[in-house]
Specification:
Elements: H1 12-28, E1 42-49, E2 56-66, E3 69-73, H2 80-86, E4 91-94, E5 99-106, H3 109-122, H4 124-129, H5 140-149, E6 152-157
Antiparallel strand pairs: 1-2, 1-4, 2-3, 3-6, 4-5, 5-6
Helix pairs in contact: 3-5
Length: about 160
């Protein structure tokens, strides 16, 4: 899949205020169950090594559990963390209690389409706010745009 595509660059406020505050809260307080009262979906910190610089970058991300696997979605499009994961660089996912080395496998085709349909139905607010689709009337055109513009990765824990 091409790394060139839709990318909504984060604002200065998000990069310098919101993301650092969220990282601090996730690492010190934890957010288990903030998205899902049953504790499946969480907000965690994704640490990924830069594909060019080799430097570690840290991003708060939503982790959704679906079909027995954990998934990350690039709500802002082809983000730098998505490009770094796609390049196969070293990555970790964690919160206050546990940081795990991970491997990310990008979804494609029907598997990605099925996941995006599920995501839009499950998180209607996020579908409207970030994905810019109407969850009650998801058209084939909308689904095609979501599949093209938003990367989805299945996350597997790697034994260290």
């Amino acid at each position: 899949m091409s790394a060139v595509g839709h990318y909504k660059r984060p604002t200065v406020l998000r990069r310098r205020v919101y993301d650092p505050i969220m990282r601090m809260l996730i690492e010190r307080v934890g957010f288990a169950g903030i998205l899902d009262p049953r504790g499946g979906d969480t907000v965690q910190v994704l640490s990924v090594r830069g594909r060019k610089s080799g430097r570690w970058y840290h991003h708060p991300v939503g982790v959704c559990v679906h079909g027995g696997g954990r998934h990350l979605v690039g709500f802002y499009g082809q983000t730098e963390w998505a490009r770094n994961l796609r390049a196969g660089t070293e990555a970790r996912l964690g919160n206050r209690k546990l940081v795990q080395p991970i491997r990310a496998i990008e979804l494609d085709g029907e598997e990605k389409a099925e996941y995006m349909r599920w995501l839009v139905g499950r998180y209607r607010f996020f579908a409207r706010a970030w994905l810019k689709v109407n969850p009650n009337r998801l058209t084939d055109t909308d689904l095609g745009r979501l599949l093209r513009d938003h990367p989805v990765f299945r996350v597997e824990t790697v034994e260290s």
